[in-house]
Every structure is written in C-alpha cells, then in structure tokens.
Design goal:
The protein is an alpha/beta fold. It has a single domain, classed as Flavodoxin domain (Rossmann fold). The chain has 6 helices and 6 strands; from the N terminus they run E-H-E-H-H-E-E-H-E-H-E-H. Strands 1, 2, 3, 4, 5 and 6 form a 6-stranded mixed beta sheet that branches. The longest helix has 15 residues, at 16-30. The N and C termini lie close together (9 Å).
C-alpha cells in the first residue's frame, strides 16, 4: 500500500483533467492504496513572493490553503498532478501551487514518484511537452523524486468530454491501479 496524493488543478466545472484524475483515484483505491484527493477549486492560493523565509523556517509566511496542501504532499509517497493544458503549458493554478511548495525543498519529504495527467483540445503529441518539462523542472529540485510518466489526453476540449474517451479513461484508471 502506498500513500498517494492526487492534485486536480483545474477550476472549471466538469473539468476533463479532473474527470481523469478521479478515474486514477478509483484505480488507486481499488489497488488498496491510501489516497488523498485535493481539488484546487475553492482554495485560496496566493502567489509566492520570493522571500525565501520558508528555506529557514520550513513554512510559508503567506497564510492561505497551501499550508494544508504542503503537509499532504510532504507525506505522500506518490504525487499525481492533473492539469488542463492552456497555450501548451500547465494551467496557472498548478504553476502557482508548484511555486508555493517551496517549503518542501529543505525538509524530509516522502514522495518519490511523480506523475502528470493532462488534457488539451489540441491533439498533437507535442502539445504536452512544455507542461511535462515544467513539472520535470520542479521534480529536479527534489533529488529523491523522479517524474515517472504522463497520461496525455489530446482532442478533448468541451467540459465533461473526457467521459466519452474510454481509451484515456482506462489509461488514467490503469495509472492509479498500477502505482
């Protein structure tokens, strides 16, 4: 059994990346894992101010919902980030959260395996490269962790459309099931 943290970063109702994240969650739970599911919808997440106080204190000076998220991320063995692709990049909420996870850098974190689930209206394979590379840059800062894979769902734009793409739903489920 692994401790898994799935973070759905889209704020859109009926988000395709959230639908796939839920399929992944189902697979992870059925495999007997302990799963913490976090949606950024309704969360207050301020921008990092770059003060770096967190490097000494282990916590952020900003008071919002990120402190709770940091604790869950820190204690998970597996992290899965789900994001829509906007302009060939991860959504802004995900990037803002990654910036705010900076207090994890100097501490003992449990996560080793990191994955991405991403959806986009565009179908080209290259659509996901910049977002994946962006997450790789974050993972590179944590020498005990590695980016293990991507479930890429192209050609999915309208809200709730992921439900009609059985192939991608199966891939997201399998990701969770095979952690």
């Amino acid at each position: 059994m692994k401790k898994v943290c799935i973070i759905s970063t889209s704020l859109r109702a009926g988000s395709n990346s959230d639908i796939l994240a839920r399929a992944c969650e189902k697979g992870a739970l059925e495999a007997g894992n302990e799963v913490e599911y976090i949606s950024l919808k309704g969360k207050e997440i301020q921008y990092c101010i770059g003060c770096l106080a967190c490097q000494n204190s282990g916590s952020c000076v900003l008071k919002d919902d990120v402190a709770e998220i940091i604790n869950k991320v820190k204690n998970a063995q597996v992290l899965i980030f789900a994001t829509p692709i906007y302009y060939y990049e991860m959504c802004g909420q995900m990037k803002t959260l990654l910036d705010r996870l900076n207090p994890l850098y100097p501490c003992e974190y449990a996560f080793r395996d990191v994955y991405m689930i991403a959806t986009a209206a565009e179908e080209e394979e290259s659509t996901f490269e910049k977002a994946y590379n962006g997450l790789q840059g974050w993972v590179d800062c944590f020498e005990k962790a590695s980016l293990k894979g991507l479930v890429a769902a192209g050609g999915i734009g309208d809200a709730k459309e992921a439900n009609n793409h059985e192939d991608v739903m199966k891939k997201a489920y399998a990701l969770g099931r095979n952690l």
